[in-house]
């Protein structure tokens, strides 16, 4: 019997004024898995992520967390559930060091007052726990970090605060090859630790390298959500570009009906 | 004839080894947890830890913080800085040595680049033994060496460490184990095994595969090596030569292989294949990982030759992995050495092949992962090989080691 997904969206709709961007979208993410979210430019990936993160209110549909319906109306609500979103333009404070960034906005949660030494130790432990070897000192200013290291810190922050779902919107888009490979391994480790990870990427090779499932959006509709081991590269390309591939995907015409401009 | 059951003495020795092994692999553990994990009662655990403590192999301490009320259970820790092994690694491009403490801590290490032109046994052995002497000199007087092990990039005979064949160093019948044992002169034999076999062992015991009983480790150097773990045990074969997946033929009309055959996985996926497919010659200054990285980089920037080369190589790798998945139904396939970079940059091809060429049932639980230990995998494996004896029979090996040292 399949486990209850940590995060599940059912028949979600979202319009910006007269423009419907998401149409009856269902999507789920399970603990211990990397779920890749793919789709062409403008397919609705970032919009879906912003709905998950409470930045955009949804027009209709269900948002379930660990099987129970919840209302997520703000980023605070999402964070409260343990949903952490790492946006591409990372919300790290350049003038602060790694430790300060990892505790930013959380310093006094649950009446917890932590001293600097404890915070430093927790930050360092989290990075080591993720086998991060590229960051040499947790007292380094974030402004001095490379793109990959910044992603690493953002991801480690999610782990430190015991998030259950981590959504990464194109984490490797701005990175070189070596850094991309390190971030991919980190994404995989995160899921292997038991978190539900959602990875958005335009690079299908990255998607095949680390994902367990692939969700393909086509013109605002979920064309298919499949196990990565059950599809070929060519099939995923077809799902992205035409919304269907053989038996998979939207029935004829469905994709086009989704456009209501 | 009926065999008598194990004697009390045999049971005790077995339990000592099992307990020490547990601490070695899992680190400091409380007596309560040990009793639970090893399925022994607390008084037996107490007697065993007392013996190991007496020998100096472990130390018992109160835990630093106790969550619950009541008497805290003593924590048993390995004496990592006192007992160690020497580990060696002979790769095509590097020679490495390390002093590794009980518990798997790398206490000290040395590394040198190995030139690709030829293979001089005396020189290799002299370099490794030199590293060992430097590290031994730095070790404290009260420390004890309890074993020595080496990983070698070739087909190695179990028992005496004779390298039968090293296709990528152009050698046959090299008495490497005997030569290193003689040169080290530590009063103990250096155990030698194939490097990829040891990489598999290392990933299984300390890396990404610790929870898998069935895994395959693929090691990319100039060639492709492999280690297959079935039901928690390394597959050796009759002579210990098993697991050479690099010489599985994937393309009958393929490129010539260093082993004399053609179209082997390593001939289609190894460094040479990738370089030649990308239209790049082997050059002195860009070999190994750097050469692979340069191709991955070029592909990323849109170089069509580099892209096509990675596609082709990924496709052949996919054929190879598919065969392994159909035959062994592994829970995990681990890509190590330069195969890490190759897998990560050609995963779409590899996994498309898997979908097309494997039985759904054989692949449904499969996880594809990159090595956790990275470039240390083979060296860590050599250390684990070196620890084998002391973890099987702690007290006797210790007595012998102290006498030798
Ligand atoms: N705040 C907004 N107001 C109006 N339209 C919007 C808004 N945000 C997104 N859209 C529109 O919604 C559609 C989906 O955009 P979205 O950013 O979700 O796509 P995407 O799949 O993330 O694309 P990309 O791969 O380019 O990042 C686009 O047509 C976009 O113009
Ligand atoms: Mg987007
Ligand atoms: Zn061959």
UniProtKB/TrEMBL annotation, chain A:
Keywords: ATP-binding, Nucleotide-binding. The keyword ATP-binding applies. InterPro entries: AAA+_ATPase, ABC_carbohydrate_import_ATPase, ABC_transporter-like_ATP-bd, P-loop_NTPase. Residues 7-244 form the ABC transporter domain. Transmembrane segments: none annotated. One of its GO terms (molecular function) is ATP binding. Pfam families: ABC_tran (PF00005). This is Sugar ABC transporter ATP-binding protein.
């Amino acid at each position: 019997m399949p486990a209850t997904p940590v995060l599940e969206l059912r028949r979600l709709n979202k319009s910006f004024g007269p423009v419907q961007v998401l149409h009856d979208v269902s999507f789920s993410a399970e603990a211990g898995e990397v779920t890749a979210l793919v789709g062409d430019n403008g397919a609705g990936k970032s919009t879906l992520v912003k709905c998950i993160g409470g930045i955009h209110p949804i027009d209709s549909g269900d948002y379930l967390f660990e099987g129970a319906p919840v209302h997520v109306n703000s980023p605070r609500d999402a964070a409260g559930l343990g949903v952490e979103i790492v946006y591409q333009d990372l919300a790290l404070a350049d003038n602060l060091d790694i430790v300060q960034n990892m505790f930013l906005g959380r310093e006094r949660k649950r009446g917890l007052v932590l001293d600097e030494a404890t915070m430093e130790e927790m930050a360092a432990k989290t990075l080591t726990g993720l086998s991060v070897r590229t960051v040499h000192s947790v007292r380094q200013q974030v402004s001095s970090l490379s793109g990959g290291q910044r992603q690493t810190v953002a991801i480690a922050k999610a782990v430190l605060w015991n998030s259950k779902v981590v959504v990464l919107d194109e984490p490797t888009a701005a990175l070189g090859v070596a850094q991309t490979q390190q971030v991919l391994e980190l994404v995989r480790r995160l899921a292997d630790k038991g978190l539900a990870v959602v990875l958005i990427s335009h690079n299908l090779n990255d998607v095949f390298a680390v994902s367990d499932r692939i969700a393909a959006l086509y013109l605002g509709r979920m064309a298919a959500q499949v196990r990565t081991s059950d599809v070929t590269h060519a099939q995923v390309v077809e799902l992205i570009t035409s919304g269907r591939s053989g038996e998979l995907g939207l029935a004829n015409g469905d994709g086009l009906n989704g456009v209501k401009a | 004839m009926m065999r008598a059951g194990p004697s009390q003495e045999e049971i005790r020795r077995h339990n000592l080894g099992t307990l020490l092994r547990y601490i070695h692999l899992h680190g400091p553990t409380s007596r309560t947890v040990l009793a639970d994990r090893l399925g022994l009662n607390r008084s037996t655990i107490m007697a065993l830890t007392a013996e190991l403590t007496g020998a100096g192999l472990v130390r018992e301490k109160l835990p630093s913080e106790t969550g619950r009320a009541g008497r805290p259970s003593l924590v048993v820790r390995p004496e990592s800085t006192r007992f160690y092994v020497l580990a060696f690694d002979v790769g095509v491009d590097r020679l490495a040595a390390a002093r590794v403490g009980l518990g798997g801590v790398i206490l000290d290490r040395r590394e040198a680049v190995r030139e690709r032109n030829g293979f001089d046994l005396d020189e290799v052995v002299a370099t490794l033994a030199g590293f060992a002497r430097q590290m031994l000199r730095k070790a404290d007087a009260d420390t004890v060496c309890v074993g020595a092990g080496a990983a070698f990039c070739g087909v190695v005979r179990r028992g005496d460490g004779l390298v039968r064949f090293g296709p990528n160093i152009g050698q046959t019948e090299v008495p490497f184990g005997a030569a290193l044992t003689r040169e080290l002169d530590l009063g103990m034999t250096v155990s030698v095994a194939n490097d990829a076999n040891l990489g598999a062992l290392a990933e299984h015991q300390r890396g990404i595969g610790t929870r898998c009983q069935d895994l395959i480790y693929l090691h990319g150097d100039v060639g492709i090596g492999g280690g297959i773990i079935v039901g928690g045990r390394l597959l050796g074969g009759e002579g210990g030569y098993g697991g050479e997946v690099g010489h599985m033929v994937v393309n009958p009309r393929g490129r010539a292989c260093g082993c004399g055959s053609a179209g082997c996985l390593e001939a289609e996926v190894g460094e040479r294949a990738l370089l030649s497919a990308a239209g790049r010659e082997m050059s002195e200054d860009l070999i190994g990982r750097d050469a692979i990285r340069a191709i991955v980089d070029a592909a990323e920037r849109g170089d069509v030759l580099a892209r096509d080369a990675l596609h082709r190589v990924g496709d052949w790798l996919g054929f190879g992995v598919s065969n392994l998945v159909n035959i062994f139904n592994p829970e995990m396939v681990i890509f190590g050495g330069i195969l890490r970079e190759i897998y990560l940059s050609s995963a779409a091809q590899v996994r498309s092949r898997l979908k097309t060429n494997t039985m759904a049932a054989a692949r449904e639980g499969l996880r594809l992962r990159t090595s956790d230990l990275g470039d240390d995998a083979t060296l860590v494996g050599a250390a684990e090989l070196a620890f084998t004896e002391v973890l099987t029979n702690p007290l006797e090996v210790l007595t012998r080691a102290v006498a030798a040292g």
